[in-house]
Amino acid sequence: MSLELETTKSEDFVSTDEISLLVIILDTNPGQRLLRENPQTLTQCVDSIIAFGNSHLMQKSQNKLAIMACHSKTSEFIYPGASKTLDIRQIDGQYEVFTLVERTIKTNLHKIIATENTILSNESLLAGALSMALCYIHRIQRNKPPGCKLNSRILVVTGSGDSAFQYMSYMNVFFTAQKQNVVIDVCALDQHLSLLQQGCDITNGLYLKIPQLQGLLQYLLWVFLPEPPIRPKLVLPPPVKVDYRAACFCHREMVDIGYVCSVCLSIFCKFSPICTTCHTVFKMPGPLAVKSKKKKMKL
Amino acid sequence: MADNGLSSSQQVNNVLIQPSNLECKNLYDYLTTRPQNVLERLYNHPTICLAVYRELPELARQYVIRILFVEQPVPQAVVASWGHQAFSKEHVYVSKVLSNLFVWQEASIPGGLPGWILSTTFKRNLKIALLGGGKPWSMSSALDPDNKARDITFLDAYSAERWECVLHYMVGSQQQEGISADAVRILLHAGLMKRDEDDGSPVITRQGFQFLLLDRQAQVWHFVLQYLDTVEQRGLDLAECLTFLFQLSFSTLGKDYSTEGMNQRLLVFLQHLREFGLVYQRKRKAGRFYPTRLALNITSSQSKGVHVLEDVPKGYIVVETNYRVYAYTDSNLQVALLGLFTDLLYRFPNVVVGILTRDSIRQALRGGITAEQIIGYLTQHAHSQMLQNESNHALPPTVVDQIKLWELERNRLVYSDGVLYSQFLSQADFNVLREYAQSSGYLIWSNKEKRTMVVNKSGHDDVKKFWKRYSKGN
Amino acid sequence: MVDEEDAKEYRWETGYEKTWEAIKEDDEGFLEASVTDIIQRAKRKRQAQKLPNTKLGMMRHLYLLLDCSDSMSNQDLKPTRLYCTLKLLELFIEEFFDQNPISQLGVIIMQNKRADKISELTGNPRKHIKAITTLNRTSLIGEPSLQNGLNVALKSLKLLPSHASREVLVIIGSLTTCDPTDINTTIDALKVEGVRCSIIGLAAEVHICKQLAAETNGTYSVILDDSHYKDLLFQHIEPPPAAVCLDSSLIKMGFPHQMVTEGTDEPLTMCMCHVDSVEEGSKLTTGGYYCPQCCSKYCELPVECRVCGLTLVSAPHLARSYHHLFPAPSFKETDYNNQSLICYSCQKSFTDLDKHVYQCPKCERTFCIDCDIFIHDVLHTCPGCATNPAILQSNSD
Q: For residue B62, what is the nearest residue in chain A, using CA coordinates?
């Protein structure tokens, strides 16, 4: 009897048998504060990412993995990588696919770092890397055999900050991801990332700023390994309230009340007669009272 | 009983209820039937740990990975708190699976709380598979590049040919060569074929037909399980064979592996696998072998509807809403299989046209094939054009429903085991007992006039007890 | 549609689009490659038509004028013209608000010589879809009156501020219109007010529709079949070029944020949007968006503050529209001769099958055709430029 019960139960709990594609974007920009202060950190991050990526592959035999390095001047796929696959023979008890992942990543990353001439910028071009990842996902989705379902998601692991100057690219990426049903997860190592947090909110991803770098792998495995379909079954960090205020185009400051150009939708914090973005000349606004009122508000 | 004026009779009609269907076990079912010490021994191999891990339910995999790096036992309450309240049933189920497989064991934590701890062997070897360390797998010795390396297309063609040889033999296509007595023995052992009463030649059984309708992966897995049953009689070591099988299943297609360091028993095993097309070897003593697609991911057969991202064998069947079936194939085997449940109308060099009719389906159902299997077969081999039309239904829903209805037509009677209560002395007695049986959900049927009732078998004891109590009280 | 003035022959005599001539068999005698090529070419052509830096009417106010006359029961579209239209309109409305989040839409039906407004000009897609779905049950009777319909639309579009883009989209199945007076006066009035009228005809070309579209700078097209219908309809999702008389101005907008102070629960409050609605009633809730000017709460954005009249939006709403204004640069098509081994963005390795590759004029990266289409249709950001700090820097300056 109990045996019968069990079989019926297992029918109910059939896990989602869908293939999952995970694209990890690792920020390797040497300009970020973490790496400037202690270059060793990179090794630790890469090791954690490799172990995490392999854990993802370990979940299901058909799971797919791609890893990108977002460097200061370029973004590149370091796994599977453009060059042909290495010929790997096992040296220890590790599953040979995992060994291949590890070797490929290390070789390709080494190449990137070696060719890099050091112009330090402390902001990584994550939006660009994300857009590449979306193109990659789009290709895989396009080429999959008919009738097979593939869930895709992107995990960004970064220690650098995000500023408004990539704002438009970020927004394009987020809305594209939302349309394509790609979940964007973000693991912030160092600074709080308000723009990427918006991306997580838009695409229903998870955002986590890890309290300490030591336990990176453990955080990754706990929070980011579960696939979006089973996330509701687990207790994970609650979504944070996201600040959706806009940054004005003139000073890149957050504004509560702004002026929006009716032609190009640029946001300004003060009234100006000419739009700096599209060079439209505006009609003068109505009564002066509006202006003074606004000043009062700002105080 | 008789002294109460109550008689009960049992009906046993088990035979009638279920036509013996092909029983497909997955890895979990297979492993749970093994004793703990065998499992412990199996867990000594990283490959098996990896395979077992992948077969776990999704939630269980998350639990295992979370405590993979934890050395102390984790309180059960803590583990339970990882899952959401609403899914607590699933949590209980998952915990049971993990305990059944001895992946984790109960352990008490200082302070007396019950906790879970991963089996040390399992933990160690899963870590090795994931992160490295330990000894290399037995088939990974270095090899010189093969001067006659085989590519994937060749391997696919080879394995398909070998496997179809077995299937052909089963449907009795006259192609007798290329199949060994050993393979026949396994088919007989698995009950897929049986000796004909007259001349002793093997003929296909009902289960055999059902086997043919499974998808390729499931066929291989079922066949291998049957093979493993007989493995010890052949003087092979079960753990060794399983380990090797999973190593194969985790190997890379199109890559050659070395036979160096394999003992005699494993080499025999390898030759068996070679016969069924799971591995390719140019010569018996070649020193290297290529795993084929049949051997890869051998356990993932249970995940229905999942296609491998890489090129899968192309589907060839188109089903139209007017019940016409077009099969773009020239293989006799595939035509024969289709003929099991369709009326074939025309046959051309590369296409067969048939029609699904009530008679053809019923004939198949009488033969012991279920509607689910027919639909499964058609879906499995649906032409890619069919998959593109509607993302969720490969087959026209009308056809699917109709096939199911045709099956239901045959099952108008539902059999259930029961115990008959009759010859009640008074209507009141009858009413009381009927009331009781009904309220506890045991009642199957009752007739007031004749004062008879049938309760189901599991409720019999309970009802009997109640009756005894009741009649004593009176 | 070919203009009568400059066409030298009748429509039926004009060089028929000889689509079959473009199709060539490949080496193995298959047509597929050639057909996909034509499709992709068509896609690229549409891209090329988009000119950057044209002034667009971003704050759109669009009235859908829907024919609900007898002629809509015709079954040339399956199952009927009306049913097919309603299904497409549902998709259209959702996509319209997805792409034009700060725009407004209204629906007017023309039936039995009358015009009825079934949903007012608002920015709430759900309201419109609800109104549209109820149309399933209307009885299709009489003739439509184009003039009455246009007048109803004009009456409410007239009142809008001068920076708003005013549009009417007519979907008409009838070949006749039954008007009370001269329709030309209405067309003149529309012209004066700068209302752009576009028409999609479901039957055949009608002179008055063509004239209406020509006079008001709209487009007029007649559908071939249902997929063409969808294409035509969805072309109206892109914001049109701004009308000449459109004033530009700076509009004051509020960007509400949720009131959260770390560690404390939000107070229970009522939202303004449901405060006087009979159906749902206002409930006390914690979350919500607060008008930065008067602190009244709303549960959804974008919305116009009922108390102080400020338009409340969130930054992503505006950002959703930016790509219309700052599209990714058009890529140059070049023949493939081993410029690059792989497509920069999707990592596809080029083979001899790829006859053309596409190059971004700014960052000079090479892309495959699929990425080219994906980047321009969906993503709107060139991955090459976005990963190049120098170009990004120069863009933002």
A: A226
3-state secondary structure of B35: coil
- Nearest chain C residue to A282 by CA distance is C249
Which domain range does residue A221 map to? 17-232
Q: Which of residues 92-111 of C touch A (CB under 8 A)?
A: 102
For residues A79 and A158, state if they share a domain. Answer: yes
- For C136, phi then psi, to 5°, come to -50, -35
Chains B and C make contact, 3+ CB pairs within 8 Å: no
A95 and A132 share a domain? yes
Query: Is residue C336 one of the residues assigned to a domain?
Result: yes
Regarding whether A173 and A106 lie in a shared domain, the answer is: yes
Three-class DSSP category at B241? helix
| Distance between C389 CA and the closest CA of chain A, angstroms | 6
**What does the pLDDT read at residue A147?**
67
Q: C249 and A282: CB-CB below 8 Å?
A: yes
At residue C115's C-alpha, the angle toward residues C217 and C134, to 5°, is 105
Same domain, C331 and C305: no
| Residues A107-150 pLDDT 10s | 889 888 888 766 667 778 899 999 999 999 999 888 877 667 78
CB-based touch A/C (3+ pairs, under 8 A): yes
Residue A2 has pLDDT above 60, yes or no: no
Task: Please tell me the total count of domains within chain C.
Answer: 3
Chain A CB contacts of B384 below 8 Å: 145-147
pLDDT tens sequence across A16-63: 567 889 999 999 888 888 888 888 888 999 999 999 999 999 988 888
Q: How distant is the alpha carbon of residue A72 from its chain centre?
A: 16
Is the preceding omega at residue A232 within 30 degrees of 0, hence cis? no
Residues of chain B with pLDDT under 70: 1-21, 140, 173-178, 299-313, 389-392, 474
Rg of chain A over CA atoms, in angstroms? 23
Find out whether C111 and C69 touch, Cβ atoms under 8 Å.
yes
Nearest Cα to Cα of residue B47 among B298, B390, B303, B310:
B298
Task: Let me know if residue C361 belongs to a domain.
Answer: yes
Closest-CA residue of C relative to A280 is C248
- B309 to A61: CB separation less than 8 angstroms, yes or no: no
Contact yes or no for A161/A193 (Cβ under 8 A)? yes
Q: What is the spatial distance between Cα B83 and Cα B70, in angstroms, rounded to a whole number?
A: 18
In a domain, C121, yes or no: yes
Cα separation, B238 vs C368, whole angstroms: 52
Total domains in the fold of chain A: 2
A108 and A252 in a single domain? The answer is: no
* Closest residue on chain A to B307 (Cα): A148
Q: Which has the closest alpha carbon to A169: C12, B366, C389, B125?
A: C389
* C310 and C363 part of one domain: no
Tell me the residue range of the domain where C202 lies.
55-234
Nearest-CB residue to B129 (from A1, A94, A145): A94
Q: Indicate whether A165 belongs to any domain.
A: yes
Nearest CA in chain A to C59: A262
Chains that touch A (3 or more CB pairs under 8 A): B, C
Q: Which of residues 260-299 of A touch C (CB under 8 A)?
A: 260-265, 267-268, 271-272, 275, 278, 280-283, 285, 290, 294, 297
Residue A283 and residue A180 share a domain: no
Supply B180's token pair: 């060994």
88-147 of A, contacting C, C-beta below 8 A: 121, 125, 127-129, 131-132, 134-136, 138-139, 142
Asked if the peptide bond before residue A80 counts as cis, ω within 30 degrees of 0, the response is yes
Q: Give the pair of three-digit tokens for residue C306.
A: 């009922």
- CB contact (8 A) between residue C342 and residue A267: no
Q: Look at residues C182, C203, C234 and tell me which one is the last residue of a structural domain.
A: C234
Strand pairing partners for B203? B194
Contact C381 A282 (CB under 8 A): no
Is C209 found in the same domain as C64? yes
